[in-house]
Design goal:
Organism: Clonostachys rhizophaga
Pfam families: Abhydrolase_1
Number of helices: 12
CATH superfamily of the largest domain: Alpha/Beta hydrolase fold, catalytic domain
Radius of gyration: 18 Å
Distance between the termini: 32 Å
Protein name: AB hydrolase-1 domain-containing protein
CATH architecture of the largest domain: 3-Layer(aba) Sandwich
Keywords: Hydrolase
Family: Belongs to the AB hydrolase superfamily. Epoxide hydrolase family.
Largest sheet: 6 strands, mixed
Strand content: 5-15%
Number of domains: 2
Strand order of the largest sheet: 1-2-4-3-5-6
CATH class of the largest domain: Alpha Beta
Length: 278
């Protein structure tokens, strides 16, 4: 893994920890990797090694609130528009006018919003785990959980009620107190455990606070596990994670719908044909 660098956005004052490996040839594209929840740039280690060894450029930041990047207290600082602006300034700092965007989970949501706010920057887009959610419409968490409870027998996003609701501060403290329990649940060898312990209402809280364990996936190597614990098993390790959940989420805000105004402005400003990228 290359050495970390740091960049402070001149507009927000937020500091971002990132790694950058230039492309070996001007004809080779650079890939921008945007991680999800709960993660940090080290989780891209295999992708960074593979693509850089084939001559591609690579940029991978710890997103706001994660890893070694700034962790503001104010959840309003985690609006996707503000984070998008910060990442664009990072790309300007690295003199990268065009990149391939690769986003996973919340990183995929951020990527879709970055495209909406500055679509000429991108030569290609890769969305992992989730696609671009609908813009400009607040996300109705209760409706989704009620609908999926009726259809699946369990709430699909029940864990967000704990992470992003009135218990968010309690959730942060529990996750930081029982980081190995949380890690095993989020990166399990058998993802069917999510249907019992992650997705249904109240079950992630029970799993973490009771300090339970399931087997971690073999692909999540001991080295990756240690990087994860170095980031999350400490005070404020999960601060950004719960604040992203509280104010942001897929469409514009799991709980409070923040970002809808930003997104409606972006939609209004699109030129004909631009929206086809989303």
């Amino acid at each position: 893994m290359p050495e970390r660098e740091s960049f402070t956005s001149p507009e927000s004052g937020h500091e971002y920890s990132f790694i950058y490996l230039p492309a070996t040839s001007p004809s080779n594209p650079t890939l921008l990797f945007l991680h999800g929840f709960p993660s940090q740039l080290n989780d891209w280690a295999f992708q960074i090694a593979y693509f850089s060894s084939h001559g591609y450029g690579v940029v991978a930041p710890d997103l706001l609130g994660y890893g070694q990047s700034s962790k503001p207290d104010d959840a309003a600082q985690y609006r996707l528009k503000l984070i998008s602006d910060d990442i664009y300034r990072l790309l300007d700092h690295l003199d990268l006018p065009s990149v391939v965007g690769v986003g996973h989970d919340f990183g995929a949501t951020l990527l879709s919003r970055m495209v909406a706010y500055g679509s000429t920057r991108w030569s290609a887009l890769v969305f992992l785990a989730v696609g671009p959610p609908q813009m400009g419409t607040p996300f109705d968490l209760d409706m989704v959980n009620s609908m999926t409870k009726d259809f699946l027998g369990y709430e699909l996003l029940g864990y967000i009620t704990w992470l992003g609701g009135d218990e968010a501060e309690e959730a942060q403290n529990a996750l930081e107190s029982h980081p190995e329990a949380a890690m095993s649940l989020v990166f399990p060898a058998d993802q069917s455990v999510w249907e019992e312990w992650y997705r249904p209402l109240g079950k992630m809280k029970q799993f973490v606070t009771e300090d339970r364990r399931v087997a971690v996936g073999s692909w999540y190597t001991p080295k990756l596990q240690q990087h994860h614990l170095d980031s999350f098993a400490r005070k404020d390790g999960y601060k950004g994670a719960v604040r992203w959940r509280f104010k942001l989420g897929t469409a514009t805000g799991y709980v409070e719908g923040m970002g809808a105004k930003d997104e409606k402005c972006a939609i209004a400003g699109w030129a004909l044909g631009t929206s086809g990228m989303l």
